[in-house]
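Lecture 7 notes: from sequence to structure.

We start with a single chain of 171 residues. Read the sequence below before looking at the structure.
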Amino acid sequence: MALKDRLRGVPALDATAGLIALLAVGGVLWSPKLSNTFAKANGSVKPVQVMVDVRRVSAAEPEALVQEALAAGRTSIIIRNQPAGSVKLIRVEDINRVLVAVQPDGSVVTAPDPNRASINDLNARFVLEGDATVSKSGVVLAGTKLKVGTPVELEGALYRLNGTVSGVKVQ
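Now the structure, written as tokens:
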């Protein structure tokens, strides 16, 4: 009996059910979690350190906000308006501007900006760590390429900060 004759004997409902089952098996095999497991097994997923600069964020108590973020230990990251999961918060560095003055003898003196106390702006570098896929084209975190200059949002229980990636290091 030819294949054409065999297919005529299969009801349309059975053929549709078989196709749905085949698609379900394919979906399980190509799921992101399984793909991520394969990527970890072959070494393309590596720990990366990402620096995100947050500038000129008005906050009533910038130091308290930084301490709350550090106490949580993790922050959610949103890359180009796409949620990318949660990453570990390693440290927060102060990147406030300093005043520079050249002295008559040629030496250089620096001092913190005296206006900082009255402005209450947060200028900080958030150093984050997470697992990302590393390829020839760059670092991919949660399906989105992560490069210097990429706009990101950091979100915690009491904050949502817009920032820019200022550095990416593959460990």
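The helical segments are 3-8, 12-29, 32-42, 62-72, 116-119. Keep this in mind for problem set 3.
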